[in-house]
Design a protein that fits this description.
heterodimer; A: 176 residues; alpha+beta; 5-stranded mixed beta sheet; 33% helix; B: 318 residues; 5-stranded antiparallel beta sheet; 4-stranded antiparallel beta sheet; 12 helices; globular
Chain lengths: 176, 318
């Protein structure tokens, strides 16, 4: 009836399109599994408490904090990390936009910002409301206020916020 | 994080049975609050029962004209549901006022109701807290209690319940559906889910060990306007200092008590013809100031009449 594990537990997660088998202590967060077990260090650990958004990844297309989830809770899930968004040789449109708009200084929060922005733009395309949405029954338009509110779960201590807004806006038309 | 046995439930019946067998067992669904507390070793469950993949996420129409929201429905899905937005706008407004996009995508309806307080003394394991460690005392009572309760507190605890969603559900007269380890299904008003702290602030709900929230059921929306207003230290992604949900004649307050606070005194005053300002003044006769949280009394006295007036205008089609 139940799948059970004490010290180790086998889990298979589809990471960036590839099935990856894990054998982990059940305490391992999705974030630590990605970084320490699978070598995908693009996803960053900031606060490790869901407050900064540096660890944001897409799970089945939806953005979450990977630090607040256990790897074993994601059996069969499809996870997209920044490594799956684009590569140095083949930047995605949003990665190029962050370069073009100079949307970072140190870059530590950037993978989380980009994964979060991709999830956020899909939420807007799906017409999900935010607290900036005055008309809950209408079609949502991604104003600057809407964009800032929807990205409030991602902090940037270099404070590149105006450029981050510009970068996301520049690709919003084609992605959302 | 302390070691635990992880189990993934394949059906609700076995989940509640296993939970009841082990003292200290916890259900985990979204995990956004529980895992945070486990990392801090404030929560130390011996057994984690993962209910996240149980098929309890549907949002369905009820024969009575209401909605039944499965407990595994994420906060994002509930807030975005077209029926919730058009008929229970106060619920959408309350949900999107809480957390961040990432958290709302993971957090579930049942988990939101059972999240723990954000009281700083609960989080600081070097300080006394009767909720975290019964009998150790309450650091907030005479300490940094700016965000503590003004209603229903005890000498053992003045923590608040942090949910925004629960405040809207209280104003909407929602009912909670549960499954017990014996297989019994019961439903009761949401206002009877959480307890006041009394002598045992570590016991936060009236659920029995192993009992699982399976759904929240909304009756048809009450006639009149609906609105949720929240005041906090920053404009987004912050717990409330005070909030109010108005749904027709119903008024509930958030971040002011150990549970979502149904303002029955205010509702009574409105019913007998009192103005919104008089109504909230009647409610606030029962409020207490513990030193640093007294400003909340003023805050609530200003916040609530504005929300009541706005809901009335909506109700009048203005």
């Amino acid at each position: 009836m139940l799948i059970r594990g004490d010290l180790r537990l086998k889990t298979t997660i589809i990471v960036n399109g590839e099935a990856r088998a894990l054998d982990v202590d059940p305490r391992t967060t999705l974030l630590d599994a990605l970084r320490e077990r699978l070598g995908l260090t693009g996803t960053k650990k900031g606060c490790d408490h869901g407050q900064c958004g540096a660890c944001t990844v897409l799970v089945n297309g939806v953005r979450i904090n990977s630090c607040l989830s256990l790897a074993v809770m994601h059996e069969g899930d499809a996870v997209t990390t920044i490594e799956g968004v684009g590569s140095v040789d083949k930047l995605s449109a949003i990665q190029q936009a962050f370069l073009t708009e100079d949307a970072f200084q140190c870059g530590y929060c950037t993978p989380g910002q980009i994964c979060s922005a991709l999830g956020m733009l899909q939420e807007v395309a799906d017409n999900w409301p935010s607290q900036e949405t005055a008309d809950l029954t209408g079609r949502i338009r991604l104003s600057d206020d809407e964009l800032r509110e929807r990205m409030s779960g991602n902090l940037c201590r270099c404070s590149a916020y105006p450029q981050i807004v510009a970068a996301i806006k520049s690709v919003a038309g084609e992605l959302a | 994080m302390r070691p635990f046995t992880y189990e993934r439930a394949l059906d609700a019946a076995s989940a509640v049975r296993v939970a009841a067998e082990t003292p200290g067992a916890k259900f985990i669904a979204g995990g956004t609050n529980l895992l945070d507390l486990m990392k801090l070793e404030i929560e130390q469950p011996a057994r984690l029962i993962d209910i996240g993949k149980l098929p309890m996420a549907a949002i369905e129409d009820t024969p009575e004209g209401g909605l039944r929201i499965g407990s595994m429905a994420t906060n994002s899905h509930v807030a975005a549901d077209a029926r919730v937005r058009s008929r229970y706008a106060v619920l959408t407004q309350a949900i999107v006022a809480g957390g961040s996009g990432q958290l709302r995508n993971k957090a579930t309806t049942g988990g939101n109701l059972l999240q723990r307080t954000r009281c700083a003394y609960f989080y600081d394991t070097t300080k006394p807290c009767n909720k975290r460690q019964p009998g150790s005392g309450c650091g907030a009572l005479e300490g940094l209690n700016r965000n503590s309760a003004i209603f229903g507190a005890s000498h053992a605890c003045i923590a608040t319940h942090p949910s925004d969603m629960a405040v809207a559900l209280a104003a909407l007269d929602a009912r909670v559906e549960t499954l017990s380890p014996s297989g019994k299904v019961r439903a009761f008003p949401i206002i009877e889910l959480h307890r006041l702290p009394g002598e045992t602030p570590d016991v936060e709900t009236h659920l029995i060990p192993g009992e699982l929230i399976t759904a929240v059921v909304l009756p048809p929306p009450p006639p009149g306007g609906q609105i949720y207003r929240k005041v906090r230290d920053r404009a987004s992604y912050s717990a409330g200092l005070a909030s109010v949900a108005v749904a027709g004649r119903n008024v509930a307050l958030g971040a002011v008590a150990h549970k979502p606070w149904r303002a029955v005194e205010a509702e009574g005053a409105l019913e007998s013809g009192g103005s919104p300002a008089e109504a909230i003044a009647a409610e606030l006769k029962g409020a207490s100031d513990n030193g640093r949280n007294g400003f909340k009394i003023n805050l609530v006295s200003r916040l609530v009449p504005v929300a009541i007036e706005a809901a009335r205008q909506q109700g009048n089609g203005a």
